[in-house]
Specification:
Blueprint lengths: L1 E5 L2 H10 L4 E5 H13 L4 E2 L3 H17 L5 H20 L7 H10 L8 H16 L3 E2 L3 H8 L7 E7 L6 H10 E10 L8
Helix pairs in contact: 2-7, 3-6, 4-6, 7-8
Amino acid sequence: RSIFLAFNKDIVENLKQRLPSSVEVRTTHSFGLNVIYQNFGYYPKKNFKKLTELINKNLEIISQETSRFLDRDDEKELLSVMHRVIPLLKANLINPENQEEIETLVDDMALDYTLGDLEFKLILRVMQDCQADIENIDFDDMIWLPIVKGLDSRKYDFVFIDELQDLNLSQFELIKKMCNGNTRIVGVGDPNQSIY
């Protein structure tokens, strides 16, 4: 059994025409989505507003609990930071309870923003809600949920990976789930094009 992981859907379609039909061809995201299906018996609804909805919901709850309400500009800045930080926490498999690792990530991103109690509470609750809600998933969840939920994956003898240099830690962990102990992995990449 063989699989070729392509970088995007256009490449998947091109490869399906060129490779033997015995070779499964997918993106890592479609593979992750299929892992969710294999484990739960249904495809979750794709909700690409999920993160925004969870940030807004939890910000409102935390504001009520702490009686701390942000003005419009501060809230807009917070939402922007959360939309950048949370996907990277998922991609790098950073525990949302580990404030030190989160601060390091924010520093590495060169964000001119200091995280406080409000932000750490918000990150933790949003990440917990993302993990709990498998009925609705966003793009990042397709890779992240199979890892954090410990979902089983179909195993392959050969795994071919396109654009290896662009994979993040979550994608590497998902690929490891495909391996049967004797799996051969062939990766193609260009370090001069690396985005991570």
